[in-house]
Amino acid sequence: QVQLVESGGGLVQAGDSLRLSCAASGRTFSKDPVAWFRQAPGKEREFVAVITWGGGNTYYANSVKGRFTIYRDDAENTVYLQMNRLKPEDTAVYYCAADPSDNYYLSSDYKYWGQGTQVTVSS
After folding, report:
1. Are 33 and 24 in contact (CB under 8 A)?
2. How many Å apart are CA 111 and CA 98, to the nearest integer?
3. Of 111, 89, 3, 94, which is closest to residue 49 (Cα–Cα)?
4. pLDDT tens column, 106-116
5. pLDDT tens for residues 54-90?
């Protein structure tokens, strides 16, 4: 059974940093793009960042570019999201997703999802 498990969320103040982890089990994702999405209360799930196979390419939402970094450790079958200079508008449940069929930026294209981890940034 394939599982993605996120961890690392929490309550922080504006300007602080957090590192989220997405650990995969059941199969290796070293050949697949893995992404982070987030969903704030009352809003749709939105793309945050994606890393392609081998970590050769990374893409970010404009709202997080320059503050967040996605990277992967394929030996550990884990993808990370380093979040710096956090803002209150970053508050959301963060999900990792893997194995998109086509479009990296569409949540509906992803086959596997984690359960999410809450990130709350106070002002």
Report:
1. no
2. 6
3. 94
4. 999 999 999 99
5. 767 999 999 999 999 999 988 889 999 999 999 999 9
